[in-house]
Write a structure and sequence with these properties.
The chain is an alpha+beta fold and 204 residues long. It contains four helices and five strands. Helices cover 52% and strands 25% of the residues.
């Protein structure tokens, strides 16, 4: 088929329109792809931010839980008067009260001078764990008297009671008794640490 010059002139406008439409279509596709890529990046960013926000919220919740637990421990220590300076008079009163309530015939004790157990750096000062070693001697009717005495001592507060060791032996007087009496059958010797917590920054 042969095209005359007039035919080319007739096809020039449609051909030009086709080129323009093709270019417009290509530009539209490029713009859509570019927008899609941008939206994909934004979605990934939002998704990442959301994950980080959830992790941060989880950390905040965990820290809040830990703070509440520590506050509860601190409150309990305050109630038991474990926080602060040693309370030797209170310890003596508690031991006397326990002896009377439990009707124990012979209770002897000696409390050594307080010593620093450990110090933990904190703000504004150092938290000090102090220990006062107590040597305790008890005359017992039975082993339960010893356990009850220690439980009562812990319940009295004023220090954290840590039993290092206890030795229980049969009393010589009870072994020599011909007939059973209310004479204490056992003697116990214990080494007990009375621990208190002090904020060194709050001394002044």
């Amino acid at each position: 088929m042969n095209f005359a010059a007039a035919d080319f002139k007739k096809l020039a406008l449609p051909f030009l329109l086709a080129l323009i439409l093709s270019a417009a279509g290509a530009a539209l596709i490029w713009s859509v792809n570019r927008q899609l890529a941008a939206d994909t990046r934004r979605f990934a960013t939002v998704k990442s931010d959301r994950v980080q926000a959830r992790e941060k919220l989880a950390r905040i919740s965990e820290e809040e839980r830990e703070v509440k637990e520590r506050i509860e421990v601190y409150r309990r220590l305050r109630e038991l008067h474990i926080i602060g300076k040693e309370r030797r008079l209170d310890w003596a009163d508690a031991i006397k009260r326990i002896r009377i309530n439990r009707e124990m015939l012979d209770v002897r004790y000696r409390i050594e001078p307080q010593k620093l157990l450990t110090s933990i750096p904190a703000k504004p000062g150092n938290v000090e764990f102090n220990v006062s070693a107590m040597k305790l001697e008890l005359a017992l009717l039975h082993e339960g008297d010893l356990l009850g005495f220690i439980d009562d001592l812990r319940g009295a507060g004023n220090a954290y009671v840590s039993v290092r060791k206890c030795t229980v032996v049969r009393s010589v007087a009870a072994a020599q008794a011909a007939v059973p009496t209310l004479t204490p059958r056992l003697r116990a010797e214990c080494e007990i640490d009375l621990i208190t917590v002090l904020d060194a920054g709050a001394k002044a």
